[in-house]
Specification:
By secondary structure, the protein is mainly α. Among the domains are: 153-236, Serine Threonine Protein Phosphatase 5, Tetratricopeptide repeat; 378-473, Serine Threonine Protein Phosphatase 5, Tetratricopeptide repeat, CATH 1.25.40. Helices cover 77% and strands 0% of the residues. The protein contains 27 helices and no strands. The longest helix is centred in the first third of the chain and has 17 residues, at 134-150. It is elongated.
Length: 473
Amino acid sequence: MQGEARLPDNEDMKELLAQYEKLCAGNNTSYISEESFERIIDHFDDLDAIPRAIEAAELGISQYPYSASLLVKKADLMIASRKYKKALSLLDKAEILDRNDIDIYILRTDAYLALDMQDKAVEILEEAIQHFEGDERIDLLFELADVYDDYEAFEKIFDCLKVILEYDPNNEEALYKICFWTDFTGRNEESIRIHLKIIEDFPYNDLAWFNLAAAYQGLRLYEKAIDAYQYAIVINEKFDFAYRNMADALMRLQRYKEAIEALERVIELARPEELIYQAIAFCYEKIKNHAQARFYYRKASHMNPDNAKLYEKIARSYMAESKYIQAMKNLETALRIDRTQFDFNMAMGTCLLKSGKSREAVHFFLAAVEAKSRNMKAWEALVATLFTTEQYAEAQKQVQLAKSRTGHKPLFDFFEAAILIVMGKEKLGLQSLEEALAKSPRHLKHFLKLYPASIKFPQVVELIIKFKRRKFI
């Protein structure tokens, strides 16, 4: 009634609880309505006082034995107490009184799922979906999708969302979810058809444009995806995920400058992320703007200082500009975080070589072959560095290990020949060289690169000429 004084909710509840306590104490003159019992039950439930909530439900049912809503409330509490069969019995009684209460079917589903009876839960929901219309049917379809998710019937989740969108093409929850499940199930062609139909009827639905773009992207139709993302952005200029996904499509088409613009827009619209900074840095790296790449890799490293790979990426940008001292400073940071990482040790060894510190480089190439004992490039760098620093005995030892670890690759036969010749074991060296040329003459270039002075030996020249005449080289 207009103008009637009304107690604040908390005062109203205090008064209601006082009446309830009187009724519990046996004061039969105290009257509580059915709706008020529901409020009392919810109050105790919110406080996690489940036994008191059950007590209130039982008292309410004793006062209103034909109340379907109170039976449903008690059934919900039974499920919370893991008394699933008792809950189902209460729900059966509630359905007799009011079969139009949607909570009856949802709670039945919860009980059957808890009893590991998924098929029964599906059956309940499928029957209920036929009985209800409008928003209630949609709620039941979402519930059914959750049941299918529970026992990993992923294709059927997609089917439920598809039906929801047939009833309600602008349902945001369904549009968000179907995008994920399209990607998960790979049903991109179907998603394209669904969203083209929605766009035909609702051309300003930004989520439908986004989902259409994502489906095109799933089929690697990047140009079409970009066009659709742009429509989504025109409709909703603050749609950060559209900019993010569009940047990915642009990067795949090697349109790095445009990708940078899209990613910068993501940073404007959303909270900065390490991954976005890394993506911008990657794009700058691809267009050879190493200073800007470093700038964004550093931003990413400030967000995650324990990510050693970021310091390596900064180092690589310096290496691309032949700035080896700066590169080594960043590699030192990376190696402090992860001393055994293959790439870090290889990069540090390379920087030391380029800086004229070959003997120091050996230590890092050794660490690299320990990290990846079958990696050809690491063994090649190690043996070549030992050779150029005149550590021939160690080079001979490591070349034998390289051969055994990498499956006796021909490259190391040529390296072994060079080592034997330079150590004065010419006969063995020439024999090794001849065997290596017979196996794989195309690897001769590695021998000559490692030991260019070998052409001063007439026997080496004769061997090379001999194989050239046979047209093996």
